[in-house]
Amino acid sequence: MLNFLPPLLVGLIATLLMALNALFWVPILLLVSLVKLIIPIKKMRLVIDPILLRIAEAWIAGNSGWMRLTQRVTWDVQGIEGLNYRSWYLVNCNHQSWVDILVLQHLFNRRIPLLKFFLKQQLIWVPIMGLAWWALEFPFMRRHSEEFLKKHPEMRGKDQETTRKACEKFALIPTSVMNFLEGTRFTPAKHQRQQSPYKHLLKPKAGGIALALNAMGDKFQAILDVTIVYPDGAPDFWQFLTGKLKRVIVRVRSLPVPAHLAQGDYAGDPAVREAYQKWVHQMWLDKDAQIEALIRPLAPADIA
Length: 304
Known about the structure:
Strand content: 5-15%
Mean pLDDT: 88
Order of helices and strands: HHEEHEEHEHHEHHEHEHHH
């Protein structure tokens, strides 16, 4: 444990270890993925994809290693017992910080199949990481404003097509499809701008989860509803690296796949769309209440 060192030094060491871990594993990942690119047949994919996933899992394990070395985090985690590494899961979670991704990977690595995130198109240009996400076939989404879509109606539905194609690939080997229903990280400013009806959450978007269920509903063993709470406030990434994250609370609920929704036509049937929105709204009400229950016992006024 190196957290006895000054925070700046801890941050620099953590950053160096994180970079070295990525620089070791990403070239291996790219070399293996090139084989699949050169020989684009299904049989080769079925051989190469599990190898790529094992490389990614080793990379994540390396991240967990430097986190243990440089951080002193108290983990309060419930609900990750009895998960099946060889099945498919649809995972959704509230989103507050880039640290959420490291938390999720740290807890779920080798407990369930590798988490596959839907990423913003711009992230493909992130040095090193963009190539890694491409090699692992993380879907890159182009999110357009309604004003842009009115001027370019031909672009409407492109993200849905990207999601559908990605899910077709995910169906070949066990995969965990990760979806942040809020679509962006929570901030008080965004919460106020949205006039969100939830105290601790932004408004959820049902479209992504509906597309995943429509494409792979028969594959998913369960929906893992994950709630992350940072009792001392959500850290930014540098605060995390410098060891300022002290406590993380994570609760995981395993929910059944709603077969009646998975078989419905979200895009074309208004009744199905309304049913999805009600289902997601109720899930978000439950999550909001859970966050409130987890935070209240930790409030300074209650402790005093």
